[in-house]
């Protein structure tokens, strides 16, 4: 294992740092715990407190200190309505934590001389294009990995999220139609589609699929043998968690619709599944500077430094900044790097339908922390930073109590907003649309997303989002030319306003936006510019 002194030296190379959710304790439904050493932190208690704060269905956590896994815990139910418990060997989707595996795969190819970080993407994908011709010519591999493209947050995710049917070639074809919201390389806005492009670079350069390359070159040599590079590679019968969503204000999570499972197109952006303990192997690989437990160097020291070198300034997480724990943050190549209580922190979060995970390394203290919950709530990052704070920071900061209370307040606000929007006033007749319903019926086209269709049914207008079966549903009139789409699966918390554009009494197009601020950013309805098309 690399020494703290070496990490101190390494941290100096990652300069300009900076980076990247007591009540009575609820008892877990079931638990399986392994404690090899006995640090001052009572990990079981902190997991239970976190689960109570977020009303979690289930949770796993693991902690490594000085190269030894000192804790593995599994609590609660793997699936609501069953007696199947979460276990320490259970596979959880790590979602966007997978991005660091993609950048590490690219680093291997850089070491081999097959690609260069600052080479234009068109060198490897000639048809690659963005909105602006100059940007298209100069957009590099590094640009694709550091969220500085100029695109808005989550741009184009509806191609794949929640159950979109896009292939990598569809993503590449859509990119030139996505309008930037800031200047190229001028700011940070998280994206997923450019990591799909990065995975395509791995495939075209190596001649292997992204999943084959990552399995052979990273997962297997590191010792992450029970991890799967994407869902269709999980062995039959392997213990697999079920994600849960819940409508705003609902008491219990509902198992996610199987159609929400990530398609292989997501793989390079967020497709890996792992048990908690094997994420400790990933952490140790980084503590040892890119060397496996059996001494095999997978990436050079230069590339290990390159991957963790901050590139794009971020705002520190609000709760950390408010507590005085963090002040600087940068996004590196697939990693977030930031200060935490005066020390270097390296990590990433991940969100898949019904599951949230978080991975954190404090290299100067040789600490690795991973946790995941099978609810789409911020329990994982809350647990990780609370434990990190107890180990190296100021234990008087109660992140579980503080952040859990903030989450509960946001949930209450979102539930109230959705209820208020859905309620029909008791007094007087409901307002009528500005035009007869037939005037809104037809096909609407967006150049990056494709077609959206409005039809008239016995129950009123119906919206068909074409790429997504889950985002099909009845429209409820709100006012004037505004309707609301209350999707059949209310646990998505993605209900949207639909506003029709009318010129001289004719409907010419429509726009959409999420009703609640609880809606995940990947429901990027607001980026759609749908124009009526002739049929």
TrEMBL record:
Domain called Peptidase S12 Pab87-related C-terminal: residue spans: 430-532
Residues of the signal peptide: 1-23
Beta-lactamase-related domain location: 47-378
This protein's record includes keyword Cell wall biogenesis/degradation: no
Keywords for this protein: Signal
UniProt protein name: Beta-lactamase
Tagged with keyword Signal: yes
Top-level division of the source organism's lineage: Bacteria
InterPro entries in the record: AmpC-like, Beta-lactam-related, Beta-lactam/transpept-like, Peptidase_S12_Pab87-rel_C
SUPFAM superfamilies for the chain: beta-lactamase/transpeptidase-like
């Amino acid at each position: 294992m690399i020494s703290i002194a070496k990490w101190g030296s390494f941290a100096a190379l990652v300069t300009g740092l900076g980076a990247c959710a007591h009540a009575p304790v609820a008892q877990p439904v079931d638990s399986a715990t392994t404690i090899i050493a006995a640090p001052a932190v009572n990990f079981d208690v902190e997991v239970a407190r976190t689960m109570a704060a977020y009303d979690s269905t289930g949770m796993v956590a693991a902690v490594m200190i000085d190269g030894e896994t000192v804790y593995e815990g599994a609590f609660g139910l793997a699936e609501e309505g069953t007696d199947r418990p979460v276990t320490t060997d259970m596979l959880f989707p790590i979602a966007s934590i997978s991005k660091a595996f993609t950048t590490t795969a690219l680093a291997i190819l850089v070491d081999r001389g097959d690609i260069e970080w600052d080479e234009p993407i068109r060198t490897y994908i000639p048809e690659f294009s963005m909105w602006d011709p100059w940007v298209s010519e100069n957009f590099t591999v590094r640009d694709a990995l550091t969220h500085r493209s100029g695109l808005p947050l989550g741009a184009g995710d509806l191609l794949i999220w929640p159950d979109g049917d896009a292939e990598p070639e569809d993503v590449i074809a859509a990119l030139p139609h996505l309008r930037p919201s800031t200047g190229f390389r001028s700011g940070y806005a998280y994206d997923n589609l450019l990591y799909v492009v990065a995975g395509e670079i791995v495939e075209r350069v190596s001649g292997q699929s992204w999943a084959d390359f990552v399995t052979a070159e990273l997962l297997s040599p590191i010792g992450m043998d029970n991890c799967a590079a994407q869902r269709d590679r999980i062995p039959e019968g392997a213990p697999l968690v079920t994600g849960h969503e819940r409508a705003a204000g609902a008491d219990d999570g509902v198992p996610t619709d199987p159609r929400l499972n990530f398609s292989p197109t997501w793989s390079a952006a967020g497709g890996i599944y792992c048990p908690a303990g094997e994420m400790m192997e990933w952490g140790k690989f980084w503590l040892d500077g890119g060397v496996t437990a059996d001494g095999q160097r997978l990436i050079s020291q230069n590339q290990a430094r390159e991957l963790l070198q901050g590139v794009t300034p971020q705002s520190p997480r609000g709760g950390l900044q408010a507590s005085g724990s963090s002040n600087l943050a940068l996004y590196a190549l697939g990693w977030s790097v930031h200060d935490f209580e005066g020390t270097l922190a390296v990590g990433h979060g991940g969100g898949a339908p019904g599951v949230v995970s978080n991975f954190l390394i404090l290299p100067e203290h040789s600490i690795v922390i991973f946790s995941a919950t099978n609810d789409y709530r911020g329990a994982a990052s809350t647990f990780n930073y609370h434990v990190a704070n107890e180990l190296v920071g100021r234990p008087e900061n109660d992140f579980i109590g503080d952040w859990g209370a903030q989450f509960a307040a946001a949930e209450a606000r979102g539930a109230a907003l959705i209820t208020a929007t859905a309620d029909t006033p008791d007094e007087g007749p409901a307002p009528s649309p500005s035009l007869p319903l037939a005037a809104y019926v037809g096909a609407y086209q967006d150049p990056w997303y494709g077609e959206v269709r409005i039809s008239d049914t016995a129950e009123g207008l119906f919206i068909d989002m074409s790429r997504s079966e889950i985002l099909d549903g009845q429209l409820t009139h709100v006012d004037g030319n505004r309707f609301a789409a209350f999707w059949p699966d209310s646990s998505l918390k993605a209900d949207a306003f639909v506003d029709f554009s009318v010129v001289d009494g004719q409907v010419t197009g429509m726009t959409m936006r999420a009703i609640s601020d609880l809606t995940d950013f990947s429901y990027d309805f607001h980026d759609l510019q749908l124009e009526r098309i002739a049929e």
